[in-house]
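Hey Z.,

So I finally got round to the adenosine-5'-diphosphate thing we talked about over coffee. Here's the setup:
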Amino acid sequence: MILGLMQTAPLLISGILRYVASAHGGREVVSRLIDEPIWRYDYAGLARRSAQAANALTRLGVTSGDRITSLAWNTHRHLELFYAVPGLGAVLHTANPRLSDEQIVFTINHAASGVLLFDRNFAELVARIAPQLTTVKTFVILSDAERTLDAAVGAASYETLIAGEARTFDWPDLDENAGAFLCYTSGTTGDPKGVLYSHRAVVLHAMAGGLNSAFGLTAFDVVMPCSSLYHATAWGVPFTAPICGSKLVLPADKMDGASLHQLIRDEGVTFTGGVPTIWTMYLAWLEQTGQRPDSLKRVVIGGSAVPRAMAETFKTKYGVDVLQIWGMTETCPIGVVATPTPSLAALGEDALNDAIWTRQGRLQFGIELRVETEDGREAPRDGETSGALKVRGPWVVRRYFRKDEDAADADGWFDTGDIATLDEHGFMRITDRQKDVIKSGGEWISSIDLENIAAGCPGVKIAAVVGAPHPKWEERPLLIIEAHDGVDVTKAAVLDYLAPRIVKWWTPDDVIFAPVPLTATGKIDKKVLREAWRGHLMG
Ligand code: ADP
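And the result:
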Protein backbone atom coordinates (compact mmCIF):
# COMPACT_ATOMS: atom_id res chain seq x y z
CA MET A 1 0.00 0.00 0.00
CA ILE A 2 1.09 3.54 -0.57
CA LEU A 3 -0.64 6.31 1.38
CA GLY A 4 -2.42 8.99 -0.59
CA LEU A 5 -0.97 12.44 -0.34
CA MET A 6 -4.14 14.41 0.17
CA GLN A 7 -5.17 16.51 3.13
CA THR A 8 -7.07 14.94 6.01
CA ALA A 9 -9.24 17.82 7.18
CA PRO A 10 -11.75 16.30 9.62
CA LEU A 11 -15.44 16.28 8.69
CA LEU A 12 -16.91 18.58 11.33
CA ILE A 13 -20.25 20.25 11.95
CA SER A 14 -18.45 23.57 12.48
CA GLY A 15 -17.16 23.10 8.93
CA ILE A 16 -20.76 23.18 7.68
CA LEU A 17 -21.40 26.40 9.59
CA ARG A 18 -18.26 28.06 8.23
CA TYR A 19 -19.09 27.04 4.69
CA VAL A 20 -22.72 28.12 4.92
CA ALA A 21 -21.87 31.52 6.38
CA SER A 22 -19.43 32.21 3.58
CA ALA A 23 -21.19 30.59 0.61
CA HIS A 24 -24.87 31.12 1.42
CA GLY A 25 -24.63 33.79 4.13
CA GLY A 26 -27.56 35.81 2.79
CA ARG A 27 -29.98 32.90 2.38
CA GLU A 28 -32.90 33.21 4.78
CA VAL A 29 -33.82 31.23 7.87
CA VAL A 30 -37.38 31.75 9.09
CA SER A 31 -38.67 30.42 12.38
CA ARG A 32 -41.98 30.26 14.10
CA LEU A 33 -41.68 30.46 17.88
CA ILE A 34 -43.84 29.40 20.77
CA ASP A 35 -45.39 32.78 21.52
CA GLU A 36 -43.17 35.31 19.82
CA PRO A 37 -43.47 36.83 16.37
CA ILE A 38 -41.96 34.98 13.41
CA TRP A 39 -38.17 35.29 13.48
CA ARG A 40 -36.14 35.99 10.34
CA TYR A 41 -32.43 36.04 9.74
CA ASP A 42 -29.93 34.38 7.41
CA TYR A 43 -27.14 31.82 7.56
CA ALA A 44 -24.59 34.52 8.44
CA GLY A 45 -26.86 35.36 11.38
CA LEU A 46 -27.07 31.69 12.31
CA ALA A 47 -23.27 31.54 12.38
CA ARG A 48 -23.07 34.66 14.57
CA ARG A 49 -25.66 33.54 17.08
CA SER A 50 -24.31 29.96 17.20
CA ALA A 51 -20.94 31.49 18.10
CA GLN A 52 -22.59 33.57 20.82
CA ALA A 53 -24.29 30.43 22.18
CA ALA A 54 -20.97 28.55 22.13
CA ASN A 55 -19.31 31.41 24.03
CA ALA A 56 -22.12 31.48 26.58
CA LEU A 57 -22.01 27.71 27.13
CA THR A 58 -18.22 27.88 27.52
CA ARG A 59 -18.70 30.60 30.14
CA LEU A 60 -21.08 28.23 31.97
CA GLY A 61 -18.22 25.74 32.12
CA VAL A 62 -19.25 23.45 29.27
CA THR A 63 -16.23 21.80 27.66
CA SER A 64 -15.34 19.11 25.19
CA GLY A 65 -17.15 15.80 25.73
CA ASP A 66 -19.83 17.27 28.05
CA ARG A 67 -23.45 16.48 27.37
CA ILE A 68 -26.10 19.17 27.05
CA THR A 69 -29.82 18.41 26.71
CA SER A 70 -32.35 20.29 24.62
CA LEU A 71 -36.10 19.85 25.08
CA ALA A 72 -37.22 21.92 22.17
CA TRP A 73 -39.27 22.23 18.97
CA ASN A 74 -38.21 23.17 15.46
CA THR A 75 -37.04 26.75 16.02
CA HIS A 76 -34.02 28.86 15.13
CA ARG A 77 -32.76 28.70 18.73
CA HIS A 78 -32.77 24.92 18.65
CA LEU A 79 -30.98 25.11 15.29
CA GLU A 80 -28.30 27.31 16.88
CA LEU A 81 -27.75 24.62 19.52
CA PHE A 82 -27.36 22.07 16.68
CA TYR A 83 -24.26 23.99 15.63
CA ALA A 84 -23.02 25.54 18.88
CA VAL A 85 -22.97 22.44 21.09
CA PRO A 86 -21.20 19.94 18.78
CA GLY A 87 -19.16 22.81 17.35
CA LEU A 88 -17.46 23.43 20.68
CA GLY A 89 -16.86 19.71 21.16
CA ALA A 90 -19.77 18.91 23.46
CA VAL A 91 -22.65 16.53 22.68
CA LEU A 92 -26.25 17.66 22.16
CA HIS A 93 -28.76 15.23 23.62
CA THR A 94 -32.06 16.07 21.94
CA ALA A 95 -34.62 14.82 24.45
CA ASN A 96 -37.93 13.61 23.05
CA PRO A 97 -40.75 15.47 24.85
CA ARG A 98 -43.28 12.87 23.75
CA LEU A 99 -41.71 10.18 25.91
CA SER A 100 -43.13 9.61 29.38
CA ASP A 101 -41.73 11.76 32.24
CA GLU A 102 -39.98 8.66 33.52
CA GLN A 103 -38.27 8.02 30.19
CA ILE A 104 -37.27 11.67 29.73
CA VAL A 105 -35.68 11.62 33.19
CA PHE A 106 -34.00 8.33 32.33
CA THR A 107 -32.46 9.72 29.12
CA ILE A 108 -31.21 12.97 30.68
CA ASN A 109 -29.65 11.15 33.64
CA HIS A 110 -28.24 8.45 31.37
CA ALA A 111 -26.69 11.15 29.19
CA ALA A 112 -25.41 12.84 32.39
CA SER A 113 -26.26 16.25 30.99
CA GLY A 114 -25.06 19.33 32.87
CA VAL A 115 -27.31 21.87 31.14
CA LEU A 116 -30.96 21.63 30.09
CA LEU A 117 -32.25 24.13 27.55
CA PHE A 118 -36.01 24.01 27.02
CA ASP A 119 -38.80 25.76 25.17
CA ARG A 120 -41.26 27.85 27.16
CA ASN A 121 -44.13 25.45 26.85
CA PHE A 122 -42.06 22.72 28.55
CA ALA A 123 -41.68 24.82 31.72
CA GLU A 124 -44.26 22.76 33.59
CA LEU A 125 -42.74 19.47 32.48
CA VAL A 126 -39.28 20.65 33.51
CA ALA A 127 -40.50 21.84 36.92
CA ARG A 128 -42.08 18.42 37.41
CA ILE A 129 -39.00 16.37 36.54
CA ALA A 130 -36.28 18.72 37.87
CA PRO A 131 -36.02 17.07 41.31
CA GLN A 132 -35.16 13.77 39.63
CA LEU A 133 -32.46 15.14 37.33
CA THR A 134 -29.26 14.12 39.01
CA THR A 135 -26.70 15.89 36.83
CA VAL A 136 -28.36 19.06 35.48
CA LYS A 137 -26.86 22.16 37.11
CA THR A 138 -28.12 24.86 34.78
CA PHE A 139 -31.57 25.40 33.31
CA VAL A 140 -32.09 27.75 30.37
CA ILE A 141 -35.39 28.79 28.79
CA LEU A 142 -35.17 29.19 25.03
CA SER A 143 -36.93 32.53 25.16
CA ASP A 144 -36.28 36.22 25.59
CA ALA A 145 -35.95 37.84 29.01
CA GLU A 146 -39.50 39.19 28.95
CA ARG A 147 -41.08 35.80 28.47
CA THR A 148 -38.79 33.79 30.74
CA LEU A 149 -40.92 32.50 33.58
CA ASP A 150 -39.80 33.40 37.10
CA ALA A 151 -40.75 30.12 38.66
CA ALA A 152 -39.19 27.87 36.04
CA VAL A 153 -36.52 26.12 38.16
CA GLY A 154 -34.39 29.24 38.33
CA ALA A 155 -33.87 29.16 34.58
CA ALA A 156 -32.00 31.90 32.79
CA SER A 157 -33.21 33.30 29.49
CA TYR A 158 -31.30 32.14 26.41
CA GLU A 159 -31.40 35.62 24.91
CA THR A 160 -29.98 37.21 28.07
CA LEU A 161 -27.36 34.49 28.24
CA ILE A 162 -26.00 35.03 24.74
CA ALA A 163 -26.62 38.80 24.46
CA GLY A 164 -23.22 40.11 25.50
CA GLU A 165 -21.16 37.34 23.87
CA ALA A 166 -18.73 37.71 20.99
CA ARG A 167 -20.18 36.89 17.58
CA THR A 168 -17.28 34.71 16.60
CA PHE A 169 -15.99 31.54 18.17
CA ASP A 170 -12.75 29.74 17.60
CA TRP A 171 -14.30 26.39 16.63
CA PRO A 172 -11.81 23.72 17.74
CA ASP A 173 -10.27 21.18 15.39
CA LEU A 174 -11.88 18.06 16.76
CA ASP A 175 -11.40 14.45 15.86
CA GLU A 176 -14.11 13.77 13.26
CA ASN A 177 -15.10 10.69 15.24
CA ALA A 178 -15.95 12.80 18.29
CA GLY A 179 -19.56 12.49 19.52
CA ALA A 180 -21.91 15.25 18.31
CA PHE A 181 -25.54 14.22 18.97
CA LEU A 182 -27.03 11.77 21.41
CA CYS A 183 -30.41 10.48 20.20
CA TYR A 184 -32.41 7.92 22.10
CA THR A 185 -34.68 5.31 20.54
CA SER A 186 -38.23 5.51 21.80
CA GLY A 187 -37.78 2.41 23.93
CA THR A 188 -40.90 0.51 22.93
CA THR A 189 -39.15 -2.46 24.51
CA GLY A 190 -37.11 -1.72 27.64
CA ASP A 191 -35.26 1.52 28.38
CA PRO A 192 -34.53 3.92 25.53
CA LYS A 193 -31.12 3.24 23.98
CA GLY A 194 -28.69 6.07 23.21
CA VAL A 195 -27.20 6.38 19.74
CA LEU A 196 -24.19 8.70 19.76
CA TYR A 197 -23.73 10.25 16.31
CA SER A 198 -20.19 11.31 15.43
CA HIS A 199 -19.36 14.48 13.47
CA ARG A 200 -18.15 12.31 10.62
CA ALA A 201 -21.43 10.36 10.48
CA VAL A 202 -23.53 13.54 10.59
CA VAL A 203 -21.53 15.30 7.88
CA LEU A 204 -21.43 12.31 5.51
CA HIS A 205 -25.13 11.66 6.07
CA ALA A 206 -25.92 15.35 5.38
CA MET A 207 -23.88 15.35 2.17
CA ALA A 208 -25.55 12.15 0.98
CA GLY A 209 -28.94 13.67 1.78
CA GLY A 210 -28.32 16.43 -0.73
CA LEU A 211 -27.72 14.08 -3.66
CA ASN A 212 -30.27 13.83 -6.44
CA SER A 213 -30.77 10.18 -5.57
CA ALA A 214 -31.93 11.40 -2.15
CA PHE A 215 -33.49 14.82 -1.36
CA GLY A 216 -31.80 16.56 -4.31
CA LEU A 217 -32.03 20.03 -2.77
CA THR A 218 -30.81 23.13 -4.58
CA ALA A 219 -30.14 26.75 -3.66
CA PHE A 220 -33.60 27.57 -5.08
CA ASP A 221 -35.42 25.29 -2.67
CA VAL A 222 -37.29 26.49 0.38
CA VAL A 223 -37.18 23.66 2.89
CA MET A 224 -39.46 23.17 5.87
CA PRO A 225 -38.62 20.18 8.09
CA CYS A 226 -41.73 18.98 9.95
CA SER A 227 -39.95 15.95 11.32
CA SER A 228 -38.85 16.91 14.81
CA LEU A 229 -35.40 18.30 15.41
CA TYR A 230 -35.37 16.20 18.58
CA HIS A 231 -36.00 12.97 16.68
CA ALA A 232 -32.81 11.79 14.98
CA THR A 233 -31.86 15.38 13.97
CA ALA A 234 -34.94 15.84 11.76
CA TRP A 235 -33.46 13.50 9.16
CA GLY A 236 -30.32 15.62 8.87
CA VAL A 237 -32.26 18.41 7.12
CA PRO A 238 -30.83 21.11 9.45
CA PHE A 239 -27.48 20.27 7.82
CA THR A 240 -28.45 19.17 4.32
CA ALA A 241 -30.55 22.27 3.56
CA PRO A 242 -27.81 24.77 4.50
CA ILE A 243 -25.14 22.75 2.66
CA CYS A 244 -27.32 23.00 -0.47
CA GLY A 245 -27.96 26.71 0.12
CA SER A 246 -31.71 26.21 0.52
CA LYS A 247 -33.81 28.63 2.53
CA LEU A 248 -34.87 27.03 5.81
CA VAL A 249 -38.33 27.42 7.38
CA LEU A 250 -38.88 26.10 10.90
CA PRO A 251 -42.49 25.51 12.00
CA ALA A 252 -41.93 25.19 15.80
CA ASP A 253 -44.61 22.85 17.20
CA LYS A 254 -47.45 24.05 14.98
CA MET A 255 -48.16 21.03 12.79
CA ASP A 256 -51.86 21.64 12.17
CA GLY A 257 -53.00 22.10 8.58
CA ALA A 258 -53.70 25.84 8.79
CA SER A 259 -50.34 26.71 10.40
CA LEU A 260 -48.34 24.57 7.97
CA HIS A 261 -50.22 25.97 5.01
CA GLN A 262 -49.60 29.53 6.10
CA LEU A 263 -45.83 28.96 6.11
CA ILE A 264 -45.93 27.01 2.83
CA ARG A 265 -47.81 29.86 1.15
CA ASP A 266 -46.08 32.86 2.76
CA GLU A 267 -42.55 31.53 2.52
CA GLY A 268 -42.91 29.68 -0.79
CA VAL A 269 -41.98 26.28 0.64
CA THR A 270 -40.94 23.87 -2.14
CA PHE A 271 -39.83 20.91 -0.04
CA THR A 272 -41.11 19.61 3.25
CA GLY A 273 -41.20 16.35 5.15
CA GLY A 274 -42.44 14.50 8.17
CA VAL A 275 -44.19 11.39 9.47
CA PRO A 276 -47.40 10.24 7.73
CA THR A 277 -49.75 11.48 10.50
CA ILE A 278 -48.84 15.12 9.75
CA TRP A 279 -49.71 14.70 6.06
CA THR A 280 -52.96 12.88 6.85
CA MET A 281 -53.98 16.01 8.75
CA TYR A 282 -52.68 18.37 6.10
CA LEU A 283 -54.41 16.60 3.22
CA ALA A 284 -57.69 16.56 5.19
CA TRP A 285 -57.29 20.30 5.81
CA LEU A 286 -56.67 20.99 2.11
CA GLU A 287 -59.73 18.96 1.23
CA GLN A 288 -61.91 20.84 3.72
CA THR A 289 -60.75 24.32 2.78
CA GLY A 290 -60.22 23.84 -0.93
CA GLN A 291 -56.76 25.44 -0.64
CA ARG A 292 -53.79 24.29 -2.72
CA PRO A 293 -50.09 24.17 -1.78
CA ASP A 294 -49.01 25.93 -4.97
CA SER A 295 -45.29 26.33 -4.28
CA LEU A 296 -44.82 22.80 -2.97
CA LYS A 297 -42.99 20.35 -5.22
CA ARG A 298 -41.87 17.51 -3.00
CA VAL A 299 -42.76 15.98 0.35
CA VAL A 300 -40.51 13.42 1.97
CA ILE A 301 -42.39 11.03 4.24
CA GLY A 302 -41.16 8.24 6.49
CA GLY A 303 -40.90 6.94 10.01
CA SER A 304 -43.71 4.54 9.22
CA ALA A 305 -45.09 3.24 5.95
CA VAL A 306 -46.59 5.82 3.60
CA PRO A 307 -50.11 4.79 2.60
CA ARG A 308 -50.21 4.53 -1.19
CA ALA A 309 -53.38 6.65 -1.22
CA MET A 310 -51.46 9.50 0.42
CA ALA A 311 -48.73 9.54 -2.22
CA GLU A 312 -51.31 9.25 -4.97
CA THR A 313 -53.44 12.13 -3.64
CA PHE A 314 -50.43 14.41 -3.32
CA LYS A 315 -49.42 13.68 -6.91
CA THR A 316 -52.72 13.52 -8.75
CA LYS A 317 -54.53 16.29 -6.89
CA TYR A 318 -51.75 18.72 -6.11
CA GLY A 319 -48.88 17.76 -8.42
CA VAL A 320 -46.59 17.12 -5.43
CA ASP A 321 -44.11 14.23 -5.57
CA VAL A 322 -43.85 12.08 -2.48
CA LEU A 323 -40.43 10.66 -1.63
CA GLN A 324 -40.71 7.84 0.84
CA ILE A 325 -37.77 7.27 3.15
CA TRP A 326 -36.92 4.52 5.52
CA GLY A 327 -34.52 4.80 8.39
CA MET A 328 -34.14 4.61 12.11
CA THR A 329 -32.43 6.40 14.99
CA GLU A 330 -29.61 3.87 14.61
CA THR A 331 -28.96 4.96 10.99
CA CYS A 332 -28.62 8.70 11.57
CA PRO A 333 -31.49 8.23 10.38
CA ILE A 334 -31.76 7.98 6.57
CA GLY A 335 -31.23 4.53 5.09
CA VAL A 336 -33.04 4.60 1.75
CA VAL A 337 -35.01 7.16 -0.29
CA ALA A 338 -37.54 6.33 -3.01
CA THR A 339 -36.41 8.29 -6.05
CA PRO A 340 -37.08 7.28 -9.67
CA THR A 341 -34.59 5.38 -11.81
CA PRO A 342 -34.36 5.09 -15.61
CA SER A 343 -34.92 1.34 -15.37
CA LEU A 344 -38.30 1.96 -13.72
CA ALA A 345 -39.21 4.92 -15.89
CA ALA A 346 -38.70 2.63 -18.90
CA LEU A 347 -41.51 0.42 -17.59
CA GLY A 348 -43.97 3.29 -17.89
CA GLU A 349 -45.56 5.78 -15.55
CA ASP A 350 -47.81 3.32 -13.76
CA ALA A 351 -44.99 0.92 -12.93
CA LEU A 352 -42.79 3.80 -11.84
CA ASN A 353 -45.49 5.23 -9.60
CA ASP A 354 -46.26 1.82 -8.23
CA ALA A 355 -42.63 1.29 -7.28
CA ILE A 356 -42.05 4.62 -5.66
CA TRP A 357 -45.41 4.71 -3.92
CA THR A 358 -45.21 1.27 -2.39
CA ARG A 359 -41.54 0.78 -1.65
CA GLN A 360 -39.55 2.41 1.12
CA GLY A 361 -36.68 3.49 -1.09
CA ARG A 362 -33.66 2.47 -3.09
CA LEU A 363 -30.09 1.74 -2.17
CA GLN A 364 -28.10 4.86 -1.36
CA PHE A 365 -24.35 5.14 -1.55
CA GLY A 366 -23.08 4.93 2.02
CA ILE A 367 -25.54 2.37 3.37
CA GLU A 368 -25.31 -1.30 2.49
CA LEU A 369 -28.45 -3.42 2.86
CA ARG A 370 -28.69 -7.15 3.26
CA VAL A 371 -31.89 -9.17 3.48
CA GLU A 372 -31.20 -12.40 5.28
CA THR A 373 -33.45 -15.47 5.22
CA GLU A 374 -33.90 -17.64 8.30
CA ASP A 375 -30.97 -19.90 7.34
CA GLY A 376 -28.64 -16.87 7.46
CA ARG A 377 -28.25 -16.62 3.68
CA GLU A 378 -28.68 -13.50 1.61
CA ALA A 379 -32.13 -13.46 -0.01
CA PRO A 380 -32.32 -13.16 -3.80
CA ARG A 381 -33.13 -9.66 -5.05
CA ASP A 382 -36.46 -10.69 -6.54
CA GLY A 383 -38.77 -8.31 -4.69
CA GLU A 384 -40.51 -11.39 -3.26
CA THR A 385 -38.27 -13.20 -0.81
CA SER A 386 -38.43 -11.48 2.55
CA GLY A 387 -36.09 -11.71 5.49
CA ALA A 388 -34.34 -9.84 8.28
CA LEU A 389 -33.06 -6.46 7.09
CA LYS A 390 -29.48 -5.73 8.08
CA VAL A 391 -27.54 -2.53 7.39
CA ARG A 392 -24.00 -1.26 7.66
CA GLY A 393 -22.10 1.86 6.75
CA PRO A 394 -20.39 4.97 8.09
CA TRP A 395 -23.60 6.37 9.63
CA VAL A 396 -24.87 3.13 11.18
CA VAL A 397 -24.58 2.51 14.93
CA ARG A 398 -21.72 0.32 16.12
CA ARG A 399 -22.52 0.31 19.84
CA TYR A 400 -25.17 2.02 22.00
CA PHE A 401 -24.07 4.72 24.42
CA ARG A 402 -22.74 3.30 27.70
CA LYS A 403 -23.21 -0.33 26.66
CA ASP A 404 -20.40 -2.85 26.79
CA GLU A 405 -21.32 -4.88 23.76
CA ASP A 406 -21.47 -3.93 20.13
CA ALA A 407 -24.90 -3.61 18.54
CA ALA A 408 -23.53 -4.63 15.14
CA ASP A 409 -21.91 -8.00 14.40
CA ALA A 410 -18.21 -8.50 13.69
CA ASP A 411 -18.73 -7.64 10.00
CA GLY A 412 -20.56 -4.44 10.89
CA TRP A 413 -24.09 -5.66 10.10
CA PHE A 414 -26.77 -4.18 12.33
CA ASP A 415 -30.06 -6.06 12.52
CA THR A 416 -32.81 -3.47 12.09
CA GLY A 417 -35.65 -5.61 13.44
CA ASP A 418 -37.50 -5.02 10.18
CA ILE A 419 -38.53 -7.61 7.61
CA ALA A 420 -37.98 -6.54 4.02
CA THR A 421 -37.50 -7.50 0.39
CA LEU A 422 -35.06 -6.09 -2.17
CA ASP A 423 -35.74 -6.06 -5.90
CA GLU A 424 -33.62 -5.98 -9.04
CA HIS A 425 -33.92 -2.18 -9.29
CA GLY A 426 -32.34 -1.80 -5.84
CA PHE A 427 -35.64 -0.92 -4.14
CA MET A 428 -36.29 -2.07 -0.62
CA ARG A 429 -39.77 -2.76 0.71
CA ILE A 430 -40.54 -3.21 4.39
CA THR A 431 -43.18 -5.87 4.92
CA ASP A 432 -43.22 -5.68 8.71
CA ARG A 433 -41.33 -5.29 11.92
CA GLN A 434 -40.23 -8.63 13.28
CA LYS A 435 -42.39 -8.19 16.33
CA ASP A 436 -45.49 -7.06 14.42
CA VAL A 437 -45.75 -9.69 11.72
CA ILE A 438 -48.91 -11.80 12.08
CA LYS A 439 -48.35 -15.54 12.10
CA SER A 440 -51.48 -17.23 10.92
CA GLY A 441 -51.50 -21.01 10.48
CA GLY A 442 -47.75 -21.05 9.80
CA GLU A 443 -47.96 -18.29 7.17
CA TRP A 444 -47.08 -14.64 7.59
CA ILE A 445 -49.47 -11.76 7.06
CA SER A 446 -47.92 -8.34 6.58
CA SER A 447 -49.57 -5.87 8.95
CA ILE A 448 -48.06 -2.98 6.97
CA ASP A 449 -49.56 -4.14 3.66
CA LEU A 450 -53.00 -4.54 5.22
CA GLU A 451 -52.81 -1.13 6.90
CA ASN A 452 -51.67 0.48 3.70
CA ILE A 453 -54.62 -0.90 1.75
CA ALA A 454 -57.17 -0.19 4.48
CA ALA A 455 -55.91 3.41 4.73
CA GLY A 456 -57.15 3.93 1.17
CA CYS A 457 -60.76 3.16 2.14
CA PRO A 458 -62.85 6.37 2.03
CA GLY A 459 -63.29 8.00 5.45
CA VAL A 460 -60.39 6.16 7.09
CA LYS A 461 -57.92 8.41 8.91
CA ILE A 462 -55.64 5.76 10.43
CA ALA A 463 -55.73 2.00 9.94
CA ALA A 464 -53.84 -0.26 12.34
CA VAL A 465 -53.49 -4.02 12.09
CA VAL A 466 -52.33 -6.29 14.89
CA GLY A 467 -52.28 -10.02 15.36
CA ALA A 468 -54.60 -11.29 18.08
CA PRO A 469 -54.19 -14.76 19.58
CA HIS A 470 -56.59 -17.20 17.91
CA PRO A 471 -57.55 -20.68 19.20
CA LYS A 472 -57.12 -22.36 15.82
CA TRP A 473 -54.77 -20.23 13.70
CA GLU A 474 -52.33 -19.06 16.40
CA GLU A 475 -52.89 -15.42 15.39
CA ARG A 476 -55.36 -13.61 13.15
CA PRO A 477 -55.40 -10.00 12.00
CA LEU A 478 -57.59 -7.41 13.69
CA LEU A 479 -58.16 -4.12 11.94
CA ILE A 480 -58.55 -1.06 14.14
CA ILE A 481 -59.81 2.03 12.37
CA GLU A 482 -59.88 5.65 13.39
CA ALA A 483 -62.21 7.46 11.00
CA HIS A 484 -62.02 11.10 9.97
CA ASP A 485 -64.11 13.37 12.19
CA GLY A 486 -67.77 13.31 11.36
CA VAL A 487 -67.45 10.50 8.80
CA ASP A 488 -69.42 7.31 9.21
CA VAL A 489 -67.45 4.24 8.14
CA THR A 490 -68.92 0.78 8.62
CA LYS A 491 -67.35 -2.64 9.01
CA ALA A 492 -69.16 -3.86 5.91
CA ALA A 493 -67.84 -0.95 3.85
CA VAL A 494 -64.27 -1.63 4.98
CA LEU A 495 -64.48 -5.35 4.27
CA ASP A 496 -66.03 -4.67 0.85
CA TYR A 497 -63.19 -2.30 0.10
CA LEU A 498 -60.56 -4.86 1.13
CA ALA A 499 -62.10 -7.89 -0.60
CA PRO A 500 -60.88 -7.29 -4.18
CA ARG A 501 -57.52 -5.98 -2.98
CA ILE A 502 -56.22 -8.78 -0.73
CA VAL A 503 -56.01 -12.57 -0.71
CA LYS A 504 -58.95 -14.00 1.15
CA TRP A 505 -57.07 -15.48 4.09
CA TRP A 506 -55.68 -12.03 4.94
CA THR A 507 -59.19 -10.73 5.67
CA PRO A 508 -59.22 -9.31 9.20
CA ASP A 509 -61.27 -11.37 11.63
CA ASP A 510 -62.82 -8.19 12.96
CA VAL A 511 -62.88 -4.45 12.27
CA ILE A 512 -62.92 -2.28 15.35
CA PHE A 513 -63.63 1.46 15.35
CA ALA A 514 -61.54 3.16 18.02
CA PRO A 515 -58.88 5.86 18.40
CA VAL A 516 -55.46 4.57 17.32
CA PRO A 517 -52.71 5.27 19.90
CA LEU A 518 -49.39 6.65 18.59
CA THR A 519 -45.91 6.29 20.08
CA ALA A 520 -43.54 9.12 21.02
CA THR A 521 -42.17 8.99 17.48
CA GLY A 522 -45.60 9.11 15.83
CA LYS A 523 -45.89 5.43 14.95
CA ILE A 524 -48.92 3.26 15.60
CA ASP A 525 -48.46 1.89 19.11
CA LYS A 526 -48.97 -1.80 18.40
CA LYS A 527 -47.91 -2.84 21.87
CA VAL A 528 -50.86 -0.97 23.39
CA LEU A 529 -53.24 -2.29 20.73
CA ARG A 530 -52.06 -5.88 21.11
CA GLU A 531 -52.59 -5.64 24.87
CA ALA A 532 -56.01 -4.05 24.50
CA TRP A 533 -57.35 -6.65 22.04
CA ARG A 534 -55.45 -9.72 23.18
CA GLY A 535 -58.54 -11.70 24.21
CA HIS A 536 -60.81 -10.53 21.39
CA LEU A 537 -60.71 -13.70 19.30
CA MET A 538 -60.34 -16.23 22.11
CA GLY A 539 -64.11 -16.54 22.61
P1 ADP B 1 -38.05 3.87 17.30
O1 ADP B 1 -37.39 2.62 16.81
O2 ADP B 1 -37.38 4.47 18.46
O3 ADP B 1 -39.54 3.80 17.33
P2 ADP B 1 -37.20 5.03 14.90
O4 ADP B 1 -37.70 6.26 14.28
O5 ADP B 1 -35.76 4.81 14.96
O6 ADP B 1 -37.83 5.02 16.28
O7 ADP B 1 -37.93 3.81 14.19
C1 ADP B 1 -37.36 3.10 13.15
C2 ADP B 1 -38.35 2.13 12.59
O8 ADP B 1 -39.45 2.81 11.99
C3 ADP B 1 -37.80 1.27 11.49
O9 ADP B 1 -37.04 0.20 11.99
C4 ADP B 1 -39.07 0.83 10.76
O10 ADP B 1 -39.68 -0.25 11.41
C5 ADP B 1 -39.96 2.03 10.92
N1 ADP B 1 -39.95 2.82 9.69
C6 ADP B 1 -39.26 3.93 9.41
N2 ADP B 1 -39.54 4.38 8.18
C7 ADP B 1 -40.43 3.53 7.63
C8 ADP B 1 -41.11 3.44 6.38
N3 ADP B 1 -40.95 4.34 5.42
N4 ADP B 1 -41.94 2.40 6.19
C9 ADP B 1 -42.14 1.47 7.15
N5 ADP B 1 -41.54 1.50 8.35
C10 ADP B 1 -40.69 2.52 8.59
